[in-house]
Amino acid sequence: MTQAPAITALESRFFPAATPSARLMIVLHGLGDSMEGFYWMPQLLALPRLNYLLVNAPNPYFMGKAWYDVDNPAPGVTQGRALLGQLFAELAAEGWPSSDVVLFGFSQGCLMSIDFALRYDQPLAGIVGVSGYAFALDTLEAEMHPRARQQAWLITHGSHDELLPVHRTRAQMEQLKAAGVPIEWHEFPKTHTIDPETELSLIRDWIAARWR
User: Fold this and answer.
1) Rounded distance, CA 98 to CA 23, Å?
2) CA-CA-CA-CA dihedral for 202, 205, 210, 212, to nearest 10
3) What count of Cα atoms within 13 Å lies in the side-chain half-sphere of residue 199?
């Protein structure tokens, strides 16, 4: 499968796999960025059987996009959650099963990936969150779908993150693990970025292992 899906939920760009496959990674960017900021990912991850769908957040933010307002995140998070639900429904209708989809997010995209996947009722190939955090964990017990405890989770963060302190995200991931979410957690000596060597190598191997 190499044909780009016809998506209306979110502005997106499709990068086909070198070898035809139904495996797909959805990529959610961070605050003030856009899908263009991740055009490098297909080449650097170098997973020949993986398709990529890079999507833009719905809200303008200076020269880029945002998933939510940092000072009032609830409306944007709720909006993004609904749009991601529509996106997955459209993908499934076109023959892209959720069980072959990895949901990847950086920073605000990480929050959206965690928020959506905790509540999603279908199997995913995996969830990868980088340099983000979780929103409204006080409502977790009421809203988390049992499926979340069966998904594969990889969450990474930088010990020198100057924007999102690692101790907050670490504590949130411990709370999720205590609730039965099987999160694999890694810290790297980095700032608010993606380490192109050790961290990216871990992500590459982890994603490849989803289909072994």
Assistant:
1) 9
2) -150
3) 24
Closest CA to 39 of 61, 60, 54, 22: 54
pTM (2 decimals)? 0.96
Domain architecture of the chain: domains with CATH:
12-209 (3.40.50.1820)
How wide is the angle at C-alpha 65 spanned by C-alphas 134 and 4, nearest 5°?
95
Query: In angstroms, how far is the first alpha carbon of the chain from the final one?
Result: 19
The pLDDT, as a whole number, for residue 142 is 83
Mean pLDDT of the chain: 96
CA distances from 63 to 32, 34, 38 (A): 7, 9, 16
Contacts of 66 (CB under 8 A, 6+ apart): 31, 32, 57, 59, 60, 76, 108
Q: How far apart are CA 89 and CA 66, in angstroms?
A: 22
Let me know: does 51 contact 85? Beta carbons within 8 Å: no
Distance separating alpha carbons of residues 65 and 59, to the nearest angstrom? 5
AA identity, residue 209 = A
How far is CA 17 from each of CA 21, 53, 75, 148, rounded to the nearest angstrom?
Answer: 7, 11, 35, 28
